[in-house]
Amino acid sequence: MALIFCDGFDKYGGTNVSTNNVAALLAAGEWTSVTGTALSVVAGLSATGYALQIGTGAGTVSKTLPASYGRLIGGMRFAHTFGSNVAGVQFLDGASNQAGFSLNITGTVSMRNGNAISGTVLGTSTATISSGSTHYLEWDISFGNSASYQLWLDGVSILSGAGDTTTTANNTASGIQLLTTGSAVLAVDDLYLFDASGTTNNAPLLTSPRIETQLPSSDAAVQFAFGAAMLGASQARSGASISTSANQLRLRSVVPAVNCTLTAISFLAATASAGINLRPVVYSSVSGVPGALLGSGSTTTGTTASTLKTMPLTSGVALSAGTQYFIGYMCDIAVTSGLAAYTTVSDDFTAVATFASGAPGTAPAMANTPSTVIAGNVTASGANWFSVAQNPVQGGLSYVADATVGHEDLYGYPLLSATPLAIYAVAVKASVAKSDAGAKTLSLRLKSGGTDSAGSAGTLAPGTSYGWLTSLYPTDPATGTAWTAAALNAAQAGVRVES
After folding, report:
1. DSSP for 101-169, written as a single string
2. For the chain, which residues score pLDDT lower than 70?
3. Which domains does the chain have, with CATH numbers?
4. What is the predicted pLDDT for the residue at 162?
5. How far is CA 114 from the centre of its chain?
C-alpha cells in the first residue's frame, strides 16, 4: 500500500478563525499535535472545499505516520504569504528533524538538512514564486547520509540532488510537520503522502491533484440505530463574543434536509451567568422572516462559560424537509459578552420581547444582528445519513450507533463535481467513538458493484473519544484496477461492527 495519508482539509467545516476550535478539529485523530495562535480554516485553494492556514507567529501542524519510511513522496497545494519570514515542511524521526524544505522570502525553495527553516541548505531552486500565489509543490525524498531528493513546482522539476537528509542514526522518517515562523502565512490544501512500495501510487503525480470530500446524502443500507442529529452547528467559527440585551428574542434560520422532530434548542455561552432566564422558541417562516410560533419550552436558568446550553421544548415540533424555520430563545437580562459568535456574518434576527409575557404568538419585526451559535436538537429523522453528514462533525450531538456484530450502515454520496482525468485513490474516513465497556472493533466499508470491502485498514479499534479513522482504496475493489468516475459515483461507503 503506497498511499500513506491524504487530507483535503474539507472535513473541518466552513471557514473558521477560532484557533482553539481549529486545533481541536485537527487533533481529533488526523493530526498528532498542533501549536500556534493563528490557525484557521479558509477557502480552498482548489475548486472545492477548504484549506488550512497557519498564520503569523510560530505555528506547527504535525502528524505521526503509521511506520518509519526510508523514502517519502508527496505533494500539497499551497499559498505562502512571505512577510519577512520563512515557512516550510519537515520530516521527523520521532521528535527529531531529519530534513525538509523551506519556502523562502525570496520566492525560492530550499532543501535543508535538519530543521526546514534554519537547517543547513542542501540546494536552492532558481525558480521563484510570488507572495500569496497558489501552486502545487511535490517532493521525492530519501533519507540517508548521501540520499537523493527532488522537488517539483506545478509539475516541473525545480530542484534535485543528493545530500545528508538525516540528523539521527536512522535512515527513515516517521512524521511530517507543516510550520511557519514570524510573519509568514502558509495555506495548505490537497495534501498526499506516498511511500515507494507496490505498483500503485509510488511516484510523484505531477498533475496538481485535487482531493474532493463528499459527505453522505442518502441511506443505501441501514442497520444502525438513529442516535441524534443537529440543525445548525454547535461550534463557533469566530473568537468573538456578543452581549445579550434585556428582554431579547433571538432567532436563526434553519432549513432541515430531512423530515425530523425538533425537541430542544441549544446555544453556546461565552461567559457564565447564574441569573439569566431563558426560554426556547421555534417559529415558522413567512416570506423569509420569522412568522408564527410553532413551539416553546419552560424557563431554564443560568449558563456556563464555553458550554452549550440546551433547553427542551415542551413538546416536539415536526419539521418538513426543505422548509425554512427560525429557532432560538428569549432571555430576560443583559449579559456582557454572554454569547459565542458563530461567524462574522450578521444573520441572527433579534427584537425586544418581554420575557415575563411569554413567547409572542407572532414574531415581531426583527433586525439582522451578528450571528451566534444556535442549533436545534433532533431526536427523530428517519435518515441515518443526515446524522453523519454534519461538517464539522458534532460528536455525541449527531450520531448513529450499533453494537451488533455484522450490522452495517452504507450511504450514498453526491456525484463528483467534475469528471477527473484520473482517480488515484479513494479514502473512507469516519469520526468514531465507542460508548460501552470492553474492546470493540469496526471496519470502514466501501461497496463498489457487488464487492463490499474493508480496504487497507481491515478492522479498526475506536477510542472512547471521537476521532478520525481511515481506510484506503487505491483501486476499485470490484475490479482491482484504477477507479473510474462512473464507478466511484455509484459506490457506497459506511461502517460495519466487527466485534
Report:
1. EEE-TTS-EEEEESSTTTSPEEEE-S----TT-EEEEEEEEE-STTEEEEEEETTEEEEEEEE---SSS
2. 1
3. 3-194 (2.60.120.200), 218-224+402-497 (no CATH), 226-380 (2.60.120)
4. 98
5. 30
